[in-house]
Design brief:
Blueprint (H helix, E strand, L loop, with lengths): L3 E2 L1 H8 L3 H9 L6 E3 L5 E5 H15 L4 H12 L4 H50 L14
Antiparallel strand pairs: 1-3, 2-3
Helix pairs in contact: 1-2, 3-4, 4-5
């Protein structure tokens, strides 16, 4: 007999809410068996656990849940592994490009903040010197 999991088991293991797991189920990422009166109890298989693990990994990589589902479903189908891997590499390349663009924008913002900080410190020092006050000591630099 194969190992099964309750929704609480998976929630605890992956530090998720049961609501999040039901949301993934609604998106078709998980397909638990239904048991009990009216099918109210969900019984998750090892396959569902693996799919949840892959979904969370894709999320950490910044992929959308739709992209995660598409990639995970490729591995469920009896298609050629080479085509699956090419599709996965295409998705990763596109996502990497987006992340690198975001990093460049963040670096530009950080550089602009540094310029404004230097200008503000210089203006403050000039203002204090003009008023005859001792210049305030600049704050310690934080590590880049």
């Amino acid at each position: 007999m194969s190992t099964t999991y309750s929704i609480s088991d998976l929630a605890r293991e992956f530090d998720l809410t049961t609501r999040a797991i039901r949301f993934y189920e609604d998106l078709g990422l998980l397909q638990p068996e239904r048991t009990g009166p009216g099918g109210r109890n969900r019984v998750y298989s090892g396959r569902d656990r693996t799919r949840l693990k892959l979904t969370l990994r894709a999320k950490r990589l910044g992929l959308s849940l739709t992209e995660a589902r598409d990639i995970i479903e490729m591995y469920d189908s009896p298609r050629d592994t080479g085509a699956q891997l090419k599709k996965f590499l295409d998705v990763l390349a596109e996502h990497r490009k987006q992340v690198e663009e975001q990093m460049a924008e963040l670096q530009a913002n950080l550089d602009e903040i540094k310029v404004h900080q230097r200008e503000a410190r210089a203006l403050l020092a000039a203002s204090e010197a003009k008023a005859g006050k001792p210049a305030t000591k600049p704050p310690k630099k934080s590590a880049p």
